[in-house]
Fold this protein.
Amino acid sequence: MQKSEATHLDRKGTPAWGALTGRLLGLLLGVAPLLVFMAVFFFWPLWSVLWASFQDNYGTFSLGNYIQVFQEPYLSAFKNSIGLGLISALTSSIPGAILAYLIESRGSERLRRLVASVSSVLANTGGVPLAFMFIAAFGMEGSATMLLKNLGVNIYAGDFTLFSFTGIVFVYTYFQIPMMVIVFSPAVHGIRREWQEAARNLGASRLQFWSNVGIPLIFPSFIASFLLLFASAFSAFATARAMSSGTIALVPLMIGNLVDGNVFVDSFNLGKALAMGMVVVSALAMIPYLIIQRRAARWQA
Amino acid sequence: MNLKRIVAVAAASAVALGMTVAIATPSAAATNYCKVTNLKAAGGMDALVKAAKKEGQLNVITLPRDWANYGEAMDLFTKAFGIKINDDNPDGSSAYEIQTIQTAPAAKQPDVVDIGVAALNGVTGAGRPSLFANYKVATFNHIPTEWKDPAGAWYGDYQGIIALAYDSSVSPAPTKISDLTNPAYKGMIALGGDPSGAQQAFMSVFAAAIAKGGSATNIQPGIDFFKDLKKSGNFTSVVANGENYVSGAYKISLSWNFNGPGAIASAKAAGKTLKYVIPTDAVLAGTPYIQAINKKAPHCAAARLWEEFLYSENKGKLTSQLTKADLKLSGSKLFAKIMGGQNIFVLGGATPINKDAMIKAKKIVDGPAGLNIPKGAKIIQPNPDQQDAGKKLVVAQWPTL
């Protein structure tokens, strides 16, 4: 930009505002669809939720909703939802990352393509159908339960139940691990074989390569993928609702009851304040990523 | 002076008379059905049917076909009057109904709503704009005073009683709520949703409270009961619905009695035998659901005809019994020939709001077998304030059950 301004000045002695604005206009036109999309589907809903969250149910300004957010049962709901997000991200990101590495480094091109397409199908399975699949397979009379029983393994002999916190984490792995494979594979792909060979030629052990080169290289991507998994488990609604009947305090379920229930119809805006709480948690979760990304960018550049 | 006055009075009355005539004539020719507040003002049943037929459609909202026999009611209305019914989001909630009235564009507005008392209390009351149009159905006087707005803005329509629903394979068969602690029922018991959000599940907890020594003002024993059931592993938090039942995820649930006939039929189609019984240790009646005509109704005549139909106490023909000859009858004769909505609710297992008047006039049909209230049982019906108090406890304790 500065350069072109200088040339225009040199040539005519006055800045060529016409050319400049034309260029700006072109740029604006180019990004306009994105801006409109963001405005309609992101900023406007965000604003309307924020606006309503500061009102009582009859449209008067109030901080009452936010005062309630910091009280029970909503406080434990936030703790549980954040816990669910972290545990689900942890249990899925590590196996997912190892799987991605194995497929990228050892797998044939055909296997890689197969895994990619299977993963994208599985990663998009969610909601009530996902819950139902697991109920039909691993419920008390599920087909997998019965099969295992015939093989002499009764998964219900102990305290196991699908309808618990652990059960939900288990069900979420079904879409979380494939999602990890999808988002993490490009990062693994970025580690070139030449680097490994170069390190080995210089006498580095495999462990040294990974600890000094490999892991630092892919760590920002790993954290980014981890956060994506965190966000999807943190905000997932329908599966948890179908499996828990509300016996586990989770923020999305409480929002659901407040804005779309038969028992409460006078607390829509409390639901919106809870939603803003989720926005804040998601935003805070981005901070460690930004820090790591900035540090990584310094030596990657 | 005297003469002048007489002339003036005469002239004035003539003008006034002329004006009344002038106003009366066009209004008789084109009734504004959106302002009509009773059948007489609508010009009688023939005129109302004619106007509703002309509109040709009725927008209803969140009416599941297997809920309180609404499927039959909708089919009969459509067949008799040739009015197409659009049912928006059949499985939606009362909150969805209210939000749709508040936000949907004109053509997508529901004509009539069927909402819970909690939803009604959330939108009515002093200082809040009325969402509903006043209309008094022909049987308005039969509706108990506490369940209707004096001006006809809303009125109760039917109510349910919490029943035990169980698969025929369950042994021993439960007959009361306190039976549910039986270790033989491990992992078998479910509720129809989260009691903090689903009225049916919430009232099920209330029923458990009654069975365990609680009352309309004390829901705590019900919460404790489910806490124990969860601890023993009998209560599974899977949502009680048709698919989960068929897949074997649960075998026993608590449910409104008026969902029985529909659920039994669906179970039969899937090769299962589902049974309903009113528990002997708790007869818990819900508060009636509420009917109201939307002030912004796009089909004003059809909305009013629908309400007349739902509150009709006729013993008459069902959809499958209507003949071609019946359909050629005039509006009022056809209306008198079809089964009234109040009796359609009875056939679905629900208690119609006009029950007392219908029994007195011997106009009530027999309900489905097996859903009888145990003899001598005391019916408990928590009022909206008692429900509000119960809700607070459920919301605080259920998430850590």
